[in-house]
Design a protein that fits this description.
Shape: globular
Structural class: alpha/beta
CATH superfamily: Zn peptidases
CATH architecture: 3-Layer(aba) Sandwich
Low-confidence stretches: 1-19
Strand content: 15-25%
CATH class: Alpha Beta
Number of domains: 1
Radius of gyration: 20 Å
Distance between the termini: 69 Å
Helix content: 25-40%
CATH topology: Aminopeptidase
Largest sheet: 8 strands, mixed
Number of helices: 7
Mean pLDDT: 90
Order of helices and strands: HHEEEEEHEHEEEHEHH
Length: 314
Protein backbone atom coordinates (compact mmCIF):
# COMPACT_ATOMS: atom_id res chain seq x y z
CA UNK A 1 0.00 0.00 0.00
CA UNK A 2 2.80 2.44 0.85
CA UNK A 3 4.30 1.99 -2.60
CA UNK A 4 1.01 2.81 -4.32
CA UNK A 5 0.44 5.84 -2.10
CA UNK A 6 3.93 7.18 -2.58
CA UNK A 7 3.99 6.86 -6.35
CA UNK A 8 1.43 9.65 -7.01
CA UNK A 9 3.22 11.87 -4.50
CA UNK A 10 6.52 11.19 -6.20
CA UNK A 11 5.04 11.97 -9.59
CA UNK A 12 3.46 15.16 -8.24
CA UNK A 13 6.75 16.28 -6.67
CA UNK A 14 8.60 15.46 -9.89
CA UNK A 15 6.17 17.52 -11.98
CA UNK A 16 6.41 20.42 -9.53
CA UNK A 17 10.21 20.28 -9.60
CA UNK A 18 10.28 20.26 -13.41
CA UNK A 19 7.82 23.17 -13.52
CA UNK A 20 9.89 25.25 -11.08
CA UNK A 21 13.08 24.37 -12.92
CA UNK A 22 11.57 25.44 -16.24
CA UNK A 23 10.32 28.70 -14.68
CA UNK A 24 13.75 29.47 -13.22
CA UNK A 25 15.42 28.73 -16.55
CA UNK A 26 13.00 31.04 -18.38
CA UNK A 27 13.59 33.83 -15.85
CA UNK A 28 17.36 33.45 -16.20
CA UNK A 29 17.06 33.44 -19.98
CA UNK A 30 15.08 36.70 -20.00
CA UNK A 31 17.52 38.28 -17.54
CA UNK A 32 20.47 37.48 -19.82
CA UNK A 33 18.49 38.51 -22.90
CA UNK A 34 17.74 41.95 -21.46
CA UNK A 35 21.37 42.58 -20.52
CA UNK A 36 22.66 41.35 -23.87
CA UNK A 37 20.20 43.51 -25.78
CA UNK A 38 20.83 46.74 -23.86
CA UNK A 39 24.61 46.31 -24.10
CA UNK A 40 24.63 45.60 -27.83
CA UNK A 41 26.14 47.97 -30.41
CA UNK A 42 22.61 48.90 -31.50
CA UNK A 43 22.39 51.33 -28.60
CA UNK A 44 25.76 52.99 -29.21
CA UNK A 45 26.65 53.15 -25.51
CA UNK A 46 23.33 54.75 -24.43
CA UNK A 47 24.75 58.22 -23.77
CA UNK A 48 22.14 60.68 -22.50
CA UNK A 49 20.65 62.82 -25.24
CA UNK A 50 21.68 60.51 -28.12
CA UNK A 51 19.75 58.26 -30.48
CA UNK A 52 21.23 55.27 -28.66
CA UNK A 53 19.74 56.41 -25.37
CA UNK A 54 16.39 56.95 -27.09
CA UNK A 55 16.48 53.40 -28.48
CA UNK A 56 17.39 52.00 -25.05
CA UNK A 57 14.54 53.93 -23.48
CA UNK A 58 12.12 52.55 -26.08
CA UNK A 59 13.25 49.02 -25.25
CA UNK A 60 12.72 49.59 -21.51
CA UNK A 61 9.27 51.11 -22.13
CA UNK A 62 8.39 48.10 -24.27
CA UNK A 63 9.48 45.74 -21.48
CA UNK A 64 7.53 47.74 -18.87
CA UNK A 65 4.43 47.36 -21.05
CA UNK A 66 4.98 43.65 -21.67
CA UNK A 67 5.40 43.03 -17.93
CA UNK A 68 2.26 45.04 -17.24
CA UNK A 69 3.57 47.90 -15.11
CA UNK A 70 1.21 50.81 -14.60
CA UNK A 71 2.13 54.32 -15.73
CA UNK A 72 1.47 57.40 -13.57
CA UNK A 73 -1.12 59.75 -15.05
CA UNK A 74 1.37 62.63 -14.97
CA UNK A 75 3.98 60.62 -16.90
CA UNK A 76 2.62 59.61 -20.31
CA UNK A 77 4.21 56.46 -21.69
CA UNK A 78 6.21 56.04 -18.45
CA UNK A 79 8.56 58.92 -19.33
CA UNK A 80 9.67 61.71 -16.97
CA UNK A 81 11.48 64.47 -18.85
CA UNK A 82 14.10 66.73 -17.31
CA UNK A 83 16.97 68.93 -18.47
CA UNK A 84 20.36 70.01 -17.16
CA UNK A 85 23.59 71.65 -18.24
CA UNK A 86 26.58 69.42 -18.95
CA UNK A 87 30.17 70.24 -17.98
CA UNK A 88 30.53 72.38 -21.11
CA UNK A 89 27.46 74.42 -20.26
CA UNK A 90 25.28 72.84 -22.95
CA UNK A 91 21.61 72.13 -22.31
CA UNK A 92 20.92 68.38 -22.28
CA UNK A 93 17.53 66.66 -22.18
CA UNK A 94 17.07 63.40 -20.33
CA UNK A 95 14.18 61.04 -19.63
CA UNK A 96 13.62 58.65 -16.76
CA UNK A 97 11.36 55.63 -17.29
CA UNK A 98 8.93 55.14 -14.39
CA UNK A 99 6.33 52.42 -13.78
CA UNK A 100 4.71 50.86 -10.75
CA UNK A 101 2.86 47.91 -9.26
CA UNK A 102 0.20 48.83 -6.67
CA UNK A 103 0.63 47.14 -3.31
CA UNK A 104 -1.66 46.49 -0.38
CA UNK A 105 -0.48 49.84 1.00
CA UNK A 106 0.35 53.11 -0.75
CA UNK A 107 3.70 53.26 1.04
CA UNK A 108 6.42 52.98 -1.60
CA UNK A 109 9.65 51.12 -2.23
CA UNK A 110 11.51 52.63 -5.20
CA UNK A 111 13.62 50.11 -7.11
CA UNK A 112 16.07 51.77 -9.46
CA UNK A 113 19.08 51.69 -11.74
CA UNK A 114 20.47 54.04 -14.41
CA UNK A 115 20.21 52.93 -18.03
CA UNK A 116 22.64 55.40 -19.63
CA UNK A 117 26.36 54.89 -20.21
CA UNK A 118 29.27 56.72 -21.86
CA UNK A 119 28.35 56.42 -25.54
CA UNK A 120 31.07 56.46 -28.22
CA UNK A 121 34.57 57.68 -27.34
CA UNK A 122 37.43 57.80 -29.88
CA UNK A 123 35.32 55.76 -32.31
CA UNK A 124 34.85 52.97 -29.76
CA UNK A 125 31.46 52.00 -28.37
CA UNK A 126 31.34 51.85 -24.60
CA UNK A 127 28.55 49.30 -24.24
CA UNK A 128 28.27 49.42 -20.45
CA UNK A 129 27.19 45.81 -19.96
CA UNK A 130 27.89 45.76 -16.24
CA UNK A 131 27.51 49.54 -15.90
CA UNK A 132 24.57 49.47 -15.99
CA UNK A 133 22.67 47.24 -18.40
CA UNK A 134 22.98 44.65 -15.62
CA UNK A 135 21.08 46.78 -13.12
CA UNK A 136 18.24 47.44 -15.57
CA UNK A 137 17.98 43.74 -16.42
CA UNK A 138 17.81 42.96 -12.70
CA UNK A 139 15.14 45.63 -12.27
CA UNK A 140 13.03 44.07 -15.03
CA UNK A 141 13.36 40.65 -13.40
CA UNK A 142 12.05 41.97 -10.08
CA UNK A 143 9.18 43.78 -11.82
CA UNK A 144 8.14 40.60 -13.67
CA UNK A 145 8.13 38.64 -10.42
CA UNK A 146 5.92 41.10 -8.54
CA UNK A 147 3.48 41.50 -11.38
CA UNK A 148 2.55 37.87 -10.65
CA UNK A 149 3.03 37.99 -6.85
CA UNK A 150 1.20 41.05 -5.48
CA UNK A 151 3.49 42.99 -3.13
CA UNK A 152 2.59 44.49 0.23
CA UNK A 153 4.29 47.80 -0.56
CA UNK A 154 3.62 49.73 -3.75
CA UNK A 155 6.69 49.13 -5.88
CA UNK A 156 7.89 51.92 -8.15
CA UNK A 157 10.44 50.94 -10.79
CA UNK A 158 12.65 53.69 -12.19
CA UNK A 159 15.25 53.45 -14.95
CA UNK A 160 17.20 56.67 -14.46
CA UNK A 161 18.80 58.64 -17.27
CA UNK A 162 21.99 60.72 -16.91
CA UNK A 163 23.58 58.66 -14.18
CA UNK A 164 26.95 59.13 -15.83
CA UNK A 165 26.33 62.89 -15.88
CA UNK A 166 26.31 63.22 -12.11
CA UNK A 167 23.12 61.32 -11.21
CA UNK A 168 20.92 63.95 -12.81
CA UNK A 169 17.99 61.58 -13.41
CA UNK A 170 17.61 60.52 -9.79
CA UNK A 171 18.01 64.12 -8.62
CA UNK A 172 15.21 65.16 -10.97
CA UNK A 173 13.03 62.31 -9.74
CA UNK A 174 13.24 63.15 -6.03
CA UNK A 175 12.82 66.86 -6.83
CA UNK A 176 9.53 66.21 -8.64
CA UNK A 177 8.22 62.67 -8.04
CA UNK A 178 4.85 61.68 -9.55
CA UNK A 179 3.51 61.08 -6.01
CA UNK A 180 4.13 62.39 -2.49
CA UNK A 181 7.85 61.97 -1.67
CA UNK A 182 6.93 61.18 1.95
CA UNK A 183 5.41 57.90 0.74
CA UNK A 184 8.88 56.54 -0.13
CA UNK A 185 10.10 54.31 2.69
CA UNK A 186 13.11 52.80 0.93
CA UNK A 187 15.21 53.00 -2.23
CA UNK A 188 16.84 49.83 -3.55
CA UNK A 189 19.35 50.74 -6.24
CA UNK A 190 21.08 48.32 -8.63
CA UNK A 191 24.29 49.46 -10.31
CA UNK A 192 26.89 46.97 -11.62
CA UNK A 193 25.71 43.52 -10.50
CA UNK A 194 27.11 41.19 -13.19
CA UNK A 195 30.91 41.25 -13.04
CA UNK A 196 32.66 39.59 -10.11
CA UNK A 197 34.72 36.40 -10.12
CA UNK A 198 34.74 35.89 -6.34
CA UNK A 199 31.01 35.55 -5.87
CA UNK A 200 30.89 38.82 -3.89
CA UNK A 201 28.02 41.28 -4.04
CA UNK A 202 28.02 44.37 -1.82
CA UNK A 203 24.94 45.71 -0.05
CA UNK A 204 25.76 49.26 1.03
CA UNK A 205 23.47 51.43 3.11
CA UNK A 206 23.15 49.63 6.43
CA UNK A 207 25.66 51.85 8.25
CA UNK A 208 23.11 54.65 8.44
CA UNK A 209 20.10 52.35 8.87
CA UNK A 210 21.37 49.16 10.57
CA UNK A 211 17.82 47.84 11.08
CA UNK A 212 17.86 46.85 7.40
CA UNK A 213 20.80 44.51 7.82
CA UNK A 214 18.90 41.56 9.27
CA UNK A 215 16.74 41.38 6.14
CA UNK A 216 19.72 41.20 3.78
CA UNK A 217 20.01 37.42 3.78
CA UNK A 218 19.76 34.99 0.89
CA UNK A 219 19.93 31.23 0.43
CA UNK A 220 22.56 30.67 -2.29
CA UNK A 221 25.90 29.43 -0.83
CA UNK A 222 27.67 30.34 -4.09
CA UNK A 223 27.09 34.05 -3.43
CA UNK A 224 28.35 36.17 -0.55
CA UNK A 225 26.64 39.41 0.43
CA UNK A 226 29.18 41.81 1.90
CA UNK A 227 28.50 45.03 3.81
CA UNK A 228 30.44 48.27 3.73
CA UNK A 229 31.29 51.15 1.40
CA UNK A 230 28.83 53.32 3.30
CA UNK A 231 30.77 54.48 6.37
CA UNK A 232 32.45 57.88 5.86
CA UNK A 233 34.77 57.15 8.80
CA UNK A 234 36.41 54.16 7.12
CA UNK A 235 39.27 54.29 4.62
CA UNK A 236 37.44 52.28 1.95
CA UNK A 237 35.43 54.20 -0.66
CA UNK A 238 32.11 55.55 0.58
CA UNK A 239 29.59 54.76 -2.16
CA UNK A 240 26.75 56.81 -0.67
CA UNK A 241 26.93 59.43 -3.42
CA UNK A 242 28.49 57.27 -6.12
CA UNK A 243 25.22 56.10 -7.64
CA UNK A 244 21.56 57.06 -7.76
CA UNK A 245 20.86 56.22 -4.12
CA UNK A 246 22.66 59.47 -3.24
CA UNK A 247 19.62 61.51 -4.29
CA UNK A 248 17.46 59.55 -1.84
CA UNK A 249 20.05 59.79 0.91
CA UNK A 250 19.98 63.57 0.51
CA UNK A 251 16.26 63.42 1.36
CA UNK A 252 16.96 61.19 4.38
CA UNK A 253 15.25 58.22 2.71
CA UNK A 254 16.72 54.82 3.70
CA UNK A 255 18.48 52.99 0.88
CA UNK A 256 20.29 49.81 -0.10
CA UNK A 257 22.76 49.85 -2.98
CA UNK A 258 23.64 46.53 -4.60
CA UNK A 259 26.82 46.46 -6.67
CA UNK A 260 30.32 45.10 -7.16
CA UNK A 261 33.65 46.79 -6.67
CA UNK A 262 35.39 48.32 -9.69
CA UNK A 263 36.91 45.77 -12.06
CA UNK A 264 39.32 45.81 -15.01
CA UNK A 265 36.55 46.68 -17.49
CA UNK A 266 34.97 49.49 -15.46
CA UNK A 267 34.37 52.56 -17.70
CA UNK A 268 36.27 50.92 -20.54
CA UNK A 269 35.23 49.76 -24.00
CA UNK A 270 35.76 46.20 -22.75
CA UNK A 271 32.67 46.39 -20.52
CA UNK A 272 30.88 44.13 -22.98
CA UNK A 273 28.34 41.35 -22.67
CA UNK A 274 31.07 38.79 -23.38
CA UNK A 275 32.99 39.87 -20.28
CA UNK A 276 30.30 39.63 -17.64
CA UNK A 277 30.14 36.59 -15.36
CA UNK A 278 26.78 35.03 -16.26
CA UNK A 279 26.50 32.56 -13.34
CA UNK A 280 27.37 35.35 -10.88
CA UNK A 281 24.87 37.70 -12.51
CA UNK A 282 22.05 35.17 -12.27
CA UNK A 283 22.94 34.43 -8.63
CA UNK A 284 23.13 38.15 -7.79
CA UNK A 285 19.78 38.96 -9.42
CA UNK A 286 18.10 36.04 -7.64
CA UNK A 287 19.62 37.10 -4.31
CA UNK A 288 18.45 40.70 -4.70
CA UNK A 289 14.93 39.50 -5.48
CA UNK A 290 15.02 37.24 -2.41
CA UNK A 291 16.10 40.19 -0.23
CA UNK A 292 13.42 42.48 -1.67
CA UNK A 293 10.92 39.77 -0.82
CA UNK A 294 12.27 39.52 2.74
CA UNK A 295 11.64 43.23 3.23
CA UNK A 296 8.26 43.30 1.51
CA UNK A 297 6.81 40.23 3.26
CA UNK A 298 8.01 41.06 6.76
CA UNK A 299 7.00 44.71 6.82
CA UNK A 300 10.56 45.64 7.75
CA UNK A 301 10.26 49.28 6.84
CA UNK A 302 8.10 50.33 9.77
CA UNK A 303 10.97 49.68 12.17
CA UNK A 304 13.45 51.34 9.82
CA UNK A 305 11.25 54.40 9.47
CA UNK A 306 10.87 54.69 13.26
CA UNK A 307 14.66 54.56 13.48
CA UNK A 308 14.89 57.32 10.87
CA UNK A 309 12.52 59.56 12.88
CA UNK A 310 14.51 58.95 16.06
CA UNK A 311 17.75 59.90 14.29
CA UNK A 312 16.22 63.20 13.13
CA UNK A 313 15.18 64.04 16.71
CA UNK A 314 18.70 63.50 18.09
Amino acid sequence: MRIYLLLPLALLFSCSTVKNSNSNAQNASQLIKDLKELSSDTYQGRKTGTKGAELARSYIVKRFKSIGLKSFASLPNYEQSFSFKDMSGNNVSGKNVVGYIPGKTDEVIVLSGHYDHLGVLDNEIYNGADDNASGIAGLLKIAAHYKKAKPNYTLVFVAFDAGEQGWKGSSAFVAQPPFNLAKIKLNINLDMISHNDKGQLFAAGTYKFPELRKYIVQSNPELRILFGHDNPKQKVDDWTNQSDQGAFDAKNIPWIYFGVEDHKDYHKATDKFENINQPFFINAANAILEIVDNIDRQGALQAVFREKVQMKKQ
